[in-house]
């Protein structure tokens, strides 16, 4: 079964991580907590190490990449029938294994992330790093959880195990002096991230004009993505067609539009921060 990052982020609160540091690199173990029932319950292991390769046979310089061995196993399904598993959108066997490499940017990012991590006095089972047989729990637990989620999505993306993520934000204002359905100003921000490369292509489209490419950093994209997935969505009220009436709308990567106050809701501060992200990028073109 294929998952995008929305599924992974949605289950953050259920995941426990165990990380050991071997030969300067990591082995990551994660298992859903008992609150997560089968067929959703799963465990995965990610082994990371350095891999030297040459991008071109005519180039003698070695390129250091991140070698990955990824395994995910769906657990505690013994008490379910195949019909029950299929009814939840899974298959009879969703276990998956992949070996490959991620670009050097991931190796650099992991080393940088470890270098800036400080540790708690107490070792927690939620997440710990084992460095030279010394177990340590990072103080920045939420940052580590999201960072590992990005890594898993990069693996799925490189392995073509999930479709590329596409996020859309849309703001529509209508002219009160004309027909109520006439669009005065409809602007859509399209975000196309590559978790493998840790880059995002962002473009703005106003009404029927051509898309305009705008620069957005990976860090700003990541912060906004986390906020988008903090909101609650009602899929039965989502729409496929692009909204033309007044309002603020989000496509959270599922290919459907959710309308503020009708098909998505949440902390008003979080919603306003997502709106601010959109408005800042709109104003950057003015």
Short description:
The protein is of the alpha+beta class.
Descriptive overview:
This protein is of the alpha+beta class and 286 residues long. The protein folds into 2 domains: 154 residues, no CATH class; 117 residues, no CATH class. Helices cover 24% and strands 33% of the residues. The chain contains 6 helices and 15 strands. It has a 7-stranded mixed beta sheet, covered by helices on one side.
Mean pLDDT: 83
What overall geometry do the principal axes of the alpha carbons give?
Answer: globular
- Number of contiguous helices: 6
What would you report as the Rg, rounded to the nearest angstrom? 21 Å
Taking strands numbered 1, 2, ... along the chain, how are they ordered across the largest sheet? 5-4-3-2-1-6-7
Global structural class:
alpha+beta
Order of helices and strands: HEEEEHEHEEHEEEEHEEEEH
Main sheet? Answer: 7 strands, mixed
Distance between the termini: 43 Å
Beta fraction: 25-35%
**What helical percentage do the residues reach?**
10-25%
- Show unreliable segments: 7-24, 55-60
Tell me how many strands there are: 15
Helix and strand arrangement:
Elements: H1 5-10, E1 15-22, E2 25-32, E3 42-53, E4 63-74, H2 82-87, E5 96-102, H3 104-115, E6 129-131, E7 134-136, H4 141-158, E8 167-174, E9 183-194, E10 199-206, E11 212-214, H5 218-228, E12 232-233, E13 247-251, E14 258-259, E15 264-265, H6 268-283
Parallel strand pairs: 1-6
Antiparallel strand pairs: 1-2, 2-3, 3-4, 4-5, 6-7, 8-9, 8-13, 9-10, 10-11, 12-15, 13-14
């Amino acid at each position: 079964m294929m998952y995008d990052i929305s599924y992974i982020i949605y289950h953050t609160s259920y995941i426990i991580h165990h990380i050991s540091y071997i030969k300067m690199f990591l082995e990551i173990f994660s298992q859903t907590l008992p609150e997560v029932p089968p067929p959703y319950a799963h465990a995965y292991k990610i082994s990371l190490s350095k891999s030297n390769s040459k991008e071109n046979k005519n180039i003698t310089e070695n390129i250091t990449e991140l070698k990955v061995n990824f395994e995910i196993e769906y657990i505690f399904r013994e008490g379910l029938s195949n019909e029950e598993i299929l009814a939840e959108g899974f298959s009879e066997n969703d276990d998956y294994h992949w070996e490959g490499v991620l670009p050097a940017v991931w190796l650099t990012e992991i080393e940088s992330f470890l270098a800036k991590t400080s540790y708690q006095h107490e070792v927690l089972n939620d997440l710990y790093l084992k460095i030279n047989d010394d177990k340590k729990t990072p103080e920045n637990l939420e940052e580590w959880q999201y960072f590992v989620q990005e890594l898993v999505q990069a693996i799925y993306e490189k392995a073509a195990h999930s479709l590329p993520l596409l996020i859309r934000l849309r703001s529509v204002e209508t002219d009160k002096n004309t027909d109520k359905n006439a669009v005065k100003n409809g602007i859509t921000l399209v975000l196309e991230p590559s978790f493998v490369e840790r880059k995002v292509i962002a473009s703005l489209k106003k009404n029927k004009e051509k898309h305009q490419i705008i620069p957005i950093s990976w860090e700003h994209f990541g912060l906004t993505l986390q906020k988008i997935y903090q909101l609650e969505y009602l899929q039965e009220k989502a729409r496929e067609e692009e909204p033309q009436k007044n309002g603020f709308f989000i496509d959270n990567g599922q290919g459907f539009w959710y309308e503020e106050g009708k098909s998505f809701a949440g902390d008003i501060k979080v919603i306003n921060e997502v709106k601010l992200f959109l408005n800042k990028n709109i104003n950057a073109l003015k």
